[in-house]
Amino acid sequence: MDYYSILGVNRNATPEEIKKAYRKLAMQHHPDRGGDHNKFAQINSAYDVLSNSDKKNAYDNPQPKGFNFNSSNFQGGNPFADMFNSHFSQRTPRNRDITLAANIELKDVITGKSLIVQYQLSKGQLETVTVDIPKGARHGDTIRYQGLGDDADRRFPRGDLHIKVRIGKTKNWDIDNNNLITKKSINLFDFVLGCVIIIETLDNRSLELKIPKGTKPGTVFNISGYGVPDINTGRIGNLYVGIEAIVPKINDAVLLNKIEQLKNEINKAQ
Predict the structure, then answer these.
(1) How far is residue 184's CA from residue 242's CA, in Å, rounded to a whole number?
(2) Is the dihedral of CA 100, 104, 109, 112 positive or negative?
(3) CATH class of 93-169
(4) Which of 58, 177, 178, 218 shows a CA-CA span of 20 to 30 A to 108?
């Protein structure tokens, strides 16, 4: 990954030029402004290295990469192969990764979430960073933020920060792949006469759902485009609304008698 190309500066750029380029790109590609999360993470990683003189020097002067000793042409193998491979084939070392857990709500899966996280590095200092949980993240997902891990050995690049996503339960709401599922209860008579109900979505939108007369209890309505975005494609799933019946509690004898008469008339008409 070419950090200079990511920020659009040359290798002789001054710290001020690097900072200016970073601020411009960070504003342009911030996820809260509709930018791409991965691109934004790359910009942050590039600035983290190029704005630090020690990291920049290590990046500009990388350790020479080793070579693999191929002993496949020798019968019985080569007794020196393991020694060569272990010594020369190692990747350029870097500091350790750090893994944290982040608790978010189901609505954050729809809108995305910016979190301020704080963690301790090996030498004892506290690190405070802002991370963006992208739209469509799922429970159990691990999101990598390059270059935000430990920096115990300043000769080598920082490790990465890994955030494990945990999504809390939301009453009356469930998720199935990219679809949201909820239930609404209406009066038994509304099934007969029909009605319009209002659904308050997790991202604070109000939807009108028309319940046609004669709808049966347990009917599930599909509202397209109000589900959860796919973290890779951005495609949004559907909202499924199951309609349940509320049986009214009627103790008034006169009213119960009227309902009984109405029931008899309905039965005769069928």
Answers:
(1) 6
(2) negative
(3) mainly beta
(4) 218
- Rounded Cα distance between 7 and 39, Å, is 11
Q: For residues 78 and 75, what is the distance between their CA atoms, to the nearest angstrom? A: 8
SS3 77: coil
Name the strand (E) or helix (H) holding 65. none
Asked if residues 141 and 165 have their Cβ atoms less than 8 Å apart, the reply is: yes
List the pLDDT tens digit at each of the 270 positions of the chain.
688 888 898 888 898 889 888 888 888 887 767 777 778 878 888 888 888 887 887 777 765 433 333 333 333 333 333 333 444 444 568 899 999 999 999 999 999 999 999 999 988 889 999 999 999 999 999 999 999 999 998 888 999 999 999 999 999 999 998 999 999 999 988 998 999 999 999 999 999 999 999 999 999 999 999 999 998 888 999 999 999 998 878 887 888 788 788 777 777 766
The DSSP code sequence of 83-95 is: HHHHHHSPPPP-P
Q: Any idea of the CA torsion for 214, 218, 223, 225, to the nearest 10 degrees?
A: -170
From the candidate CATH numbers 3.30.360.10, 1.10.3980.10, 2.60.120.380, 2.60.260.20, the one assigned to the domain spanning 173-269: 2.60.260.20
| CATH 2.60.260.20 location in the chain | 93-169, 173-269
Alpha-carbon distances of 157 from 11, 13, 52, 56, 136, rounded to whole Å: 18, 20, 11, 9, 30
The owner of tokens 């750029």 is 13
